[in-house]
Amino acid sequence: MNNAATRRFSRMLLQGLLSAVFVVALWQAIVSLTGAPHFILPGPLRVARTFWASRDLIFENALVTYAQIVIGLLLGIALGIWTAVSLAMSPMQRLLMRPFLVFAQAIPIFALAPVLTLWLGYGMASKILVVVLMIYFPVASAFFDGLMRTPQGSLDLAQTMNATPRRTMFHLRIPYALPSLASGLRLAAVAAPMGSVIGEWVGASTGLGHLMLLANGRAQTDLMFAALMALATFTVALYFAIDRFGVWLTQRYGEPAG
Amino acid sequence: MSAPPPAIVLEGEAAIAGTPLFAPLRLELAAGKWTSLLGPSGVGKTTILRLIAGLDTGAQFSGTISTENNAPLAGQIAFMGQTDLLAPWLDVSCNINIGARLRGEKPDMARARDIIEGTGLGANRHQRPHTLSGGQRQRASLARTLMEDRPVVLLDEPFSALDARTRAEMQELAGTLLAGRTVLLVTHDPGEAARLSHYAYLLSEQGLERLDVPPGPPVRAVDDPATMAAQTDMYRALRRL
Fold first, then answer.
1. How far apart are CA B16 and CA A48, in angstroms?
2. What is the model's pLDDT at position A244?
3. What's residue B179's pLDDT?
4. Among residues B115, B121, B120, B4, which one has the least CA distance to residue B67?
5. Where are the domains of chain B?
6. Judging by DSSP bridges, how do beta strands B207-211 and B34-38 pair with one another?
């Protein structure tokens, strides 16, 4: 299994590199063929040069954004897990909370972000909250679905064994639901960077989203692209790490095929 | 076993959404004996087993389930189903101890080791279920049932998913290891009922019909002529319905 995992990892890495080379080549081809001015579409080489020249500026802003993403992700996941478990434990809470959750999900976070900035100010807190709100629902609903899908036979068995509901939750229902949690985490990994940048666009004094907005306003398109690269690289790395964790969860707690 | 196995009597009828499932009947499980319940699918065999186990059935049952010692059945029952219900993330040893874990008790590791040896899983103790064969998984399920050490054991078609040879082996193992308990075996298989039962009944929409079992104590040999004859008679009774 470990060998297979290593093989899978190297194949994914190779595929990623190949498609990156392809995209960069395509990008350069478009720039060369259309002759677009650099403030409309800078070429990859120009972006790379700007990235290196502005590395301190980008790094400084990236740290803020990365921190918002990671903190928001951890808080959102914890909150989502807690909600799923308490909903699964109590039919009363399900009755009261579920319609509210669906309603909350129906509000576009983008529309909420200005209010959050108004309430929490221009600092990191408002961005973290946007991240939390973006990932909370996918995590909670994926995990909750998993918790409600424990095989009935196992629950029957637990009942004949005189298990308490709490112990059944921790020793059967949660482990059975961990593979479902993994799919919620993957959604969260994609949504979290988006949430942070949305928060920064609405109002911030630091962060990659703020830097992109600033660079765009000054027609420094190459700097905007460089900031975008810093964000995209982190998003891909984050997704990759969480995906690996999800695969591990599924193999450890699910029934591995074959 | 902590307590002597009780006799159990179920009396009553059941309906699903107003449609009768089985007519009024009286099923007696003799203390410390194997009682088999044969019958076509959908006639309520599993419902009867689940009623005795105190599990949800989706049917309305009007009647009584009483024990000879008048003790409540909850806590006296161990259950083994058609699927092994092993937790995929736990190894054999932890799966067998899951009852203690679910009750918050300390598992009796020495007893678990004995039971694992007794069910022939000594070499598989630390394997996870997906690495086991179907027969080994059902052995682990039997071991978990034994670990519960309950005087009443309810078996719901526990061997029906196994191949013929493994099924015969498992019947012998279960018959030996569960001897002396009050056992209800729900099965589709007349051969299984003929090998394992002290008493056998046929459940149909008309009610309960007592079937003849071969002489001699179970577990009976597969090729024993009396057992084969009883099996044929049971087949005939099933076909008559």
1. 72
2. 92
3. 92
4. B4
5. 8-76+151-240, 87-149
6. unpaired
**What residues in B contact A161, CB-CB < 8 Å?**
98-99, 102-103, 148
ipTM exceeding cut-off 0.85 for this assembly: yes
> Average pLDDT of each block of 10 consecutive residues along chain B (241 residues)?
82 89 91 94 90 91 86 88 93 95 93 93 94 93 94 94 90 92 94 95 90 92 92 92 79
Enumerate the residues of chain B whose CB falls inside 8 A of the CB of residue A156: 50, 53, 55, 79, 81
Of A151, A161, A255, the CB nearest to B99: A161
Among the partner-chain residues A157, A171, A254, the one whose CB lies closest to the CB of B85 is A157
Cα-Cα-Cα-Cα dihedral of A108, A110, A112, A115, to 10°? -170
Amino acid B241: pLDDT:
79
Q: Which two tokens stand for residue B125?
A: 């103790």
pLDDT, tens digit, 9 for 90 and up, residues A51-91 = 999 999 999 999 999 999 999 999 999 999 999 999 999 98
Angle at CA of residue A204, ends A202 and A207, nearest 5° = 110
List C-alpha distances in Å: A105 to A109, A138, A144, B64: 8, 9, 15, 49
For residues B50 and B21, the answer to whether their CB atoms sit within 8 Å is: no
Mutate to test the interface with A, among B77, B82, B102, B133 (most CBs of A within 10 A): B102
The H or E element that residue B20 is part of is: strand B19-29
Here the contacts of A222-225 (C-beta below 8 Å, separation 24 or greater) are: A222/A38, A222/A42, A222/A46, A222/A47, A222/A49, A222/A50, A223/A50, A223/A54, A225/A42, A225/A47, A225/A50
Which CATH architecture is the domain B8-76+151-240 placed in?
3-Layer(aba) Sandwich (3.40)
The nearest CA of chain B is from the CA of A101 a distance in Å of 30
φ/ψ bin of B214: left (φ > 0), alpha (ψ from -120 to 50), beta (otherwise) = beta
